[in-house]
């Protein structure tokens, strides 16, 4: 069995045209693997296709083409096992107002075929901080409590993979902290976590790996450390007094000569002092007329990757 929690190949989704709207190709052939045990962030602007992807994983949207394996089980060949391996906390709180939190968890467990003796209702209520509201009507719960109950519902069948769709959109700091505490704890216990978020800082803080989707395609997938490593990269742009070629550079510095004659040197600011580049340039006999630096942050990387298409 592979070490991947999720394996997606050539995944496509086209929503068929309806009276008012034309057909929409929401996913255009996604290939994506998500390692077991990781906290994986799925990022992308509005309409990128994140919810479509998550809903396909959850079995709520039917794909148009491609294969999806969840915990090694092919969604088409082993629908029951693949569904049992995943729990999804949706974006919108759809809760039956007449159920109590304990009742909701019980019904959900029943839907997943969890035998009564194996249900962990009390444990889950404790985890989501709703023990004292176990028997309150859902309609009397605050927005934050409803969100927590949604998390609880995603956990009733002890899935190996937990998916959180925009879990912190519009929630207060207290709930956000509680959610992240729970996510870290579940992950420490071995659960694979997949989350979508608009907040780049949040993804940086909590995710081991990140994929950015735009217009139905994965445009980058890397470890958060590597993505941040890219951010550590700076560029020094030198305008030479006279037209010149690039000097010989060590492996730690990448050079590029632009058509306007400027020389751009990209380097890791943590590893290479800018002074070293200036010395290299001077030692090559180049007279510097002007010099400036360029620096990117994750926001820039994200925007440059998502806005140019
Ligand atoms: N049921 C549907 N019928 C037709 N088109 C849809 C449907 N659901 C989503 N779409 C379209 O598919 C594209 C992808 O939408 P999706 O909701 O997956 O994006 P998203 O990245 O989750 O965005 P958001 O962050 O706003 O939730 C959008 O253009 C959207 O309008």
Automatic annotation (TrEMBL):
<dbReference type="Pfam" id="PF00005">
    <property type="entry name" value="ABC_tran"/>
</dbReference>
<dbReference type="InterPro" id="IPR003593">
    <property type="entry name" value="AAA+_ATPase"/>
</dbReference>
<keyword id="KW-0813">Transport</keyword>
<dbReference type="InterPro" id="IPR017871">
    <property type="entry name" value="ABC_transporter-like_CS"/>
</dbReference>
<dbReference type="GO" id="GO:0016887">
    <property type="term" value="F:ATP hydrolysis activity"/>
</dbReference>
<keyword id="KW-0067">ATP-binding</keyword>
<protein>
    <submittedName>
        <fullName>ABC-2 type transport system ATP-binding protein</fullName>
    </submittedName>
</protein>
<dbReference type="InterPro" id="IPR003439">
    <property type="entry name" value="ABC_transporter-like_ATP-bd"/>
</dbReference>
<feature type="domain" description="ABC transporter">
    <location>
        <begin position="6"/>
        <end position="240"/>
    </location>
</feature>
<dbReference type="InterPro" id="IPR027417">
    <property type="entry name" value="P-loop_NTPase"/>
</dbReference>
<keyword id="KW-0547">Nucleotide-binding</keyword>
<dbReference type="GO" id="GO:0005524">
    <property type="term" value="F:ATP binding"/>
</dbReference>
<dbReference type="InterPro" id="IPR050763">
    <property type="entry name" value="ABC_transporter_ATP-binding"/>
</dbReference>
């Amino acid at each position: 069995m592979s070490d991947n929690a999720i394996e997606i190949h050539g995944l496509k989704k086209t929503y068929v045209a309806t009276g008012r709207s034309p057909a929409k190709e929401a996913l255009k052939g996604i290939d994506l693997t998500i390692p077991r045990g990781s906290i994986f962030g799925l990022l992308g602007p509005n309409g990128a296709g994140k919810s479509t992807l998550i809903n396909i994983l959850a079995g709520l949207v039917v794909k148009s083409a491609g294969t999806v394996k969840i915990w090694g089980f092919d969604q088409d060949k082993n629908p029951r096992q693949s569904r049992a391996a995943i729990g999804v906390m949706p974006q919108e709180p759809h809760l039956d107002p007449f159920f109590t939190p304990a009742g909701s968890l019980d019904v959900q467990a029943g839907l997943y075929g969890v035998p009564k003796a194996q249900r962990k209702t009390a444990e889950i209520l404790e985890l989501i901080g709703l023990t004292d509201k176990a028997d309150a009507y859902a309609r009397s719960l605050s927005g934050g409590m409803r969100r927590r109950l949604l998390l609880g519902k995603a956990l009733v069948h002890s899935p190996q993979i937990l998916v959180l769709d925009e879990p912190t959109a519009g929630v207060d700091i207290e709930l956000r902290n509680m959610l992240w505490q729970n996510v870290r704890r579940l992950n420490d216990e071995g659960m694979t976590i997949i989350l979508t978020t608009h907040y780049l800082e949040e993804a940086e803080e909590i995710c081991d790996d990140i994929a950015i989707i735009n217009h139905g395609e994965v445009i980058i997938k890397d470890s958060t450390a590597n993505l941040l490593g890219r951010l550590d990269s700076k560029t020094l742009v030198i305008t030479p007094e006279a037209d010149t070629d690039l000097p010989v550079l060590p492996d730690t510095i990448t050079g590029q000569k632009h058509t306007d004659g400027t020389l751009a040197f990209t380097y890791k600011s943590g590893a290479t002092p800018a002074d070293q580049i200036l010395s290299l340039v001077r030692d090559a006999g180049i007279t510097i007329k002007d010099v400036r630096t360029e620096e990117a942050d994750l926001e820039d990387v994200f925007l440059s990757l998502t806005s140019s298409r």
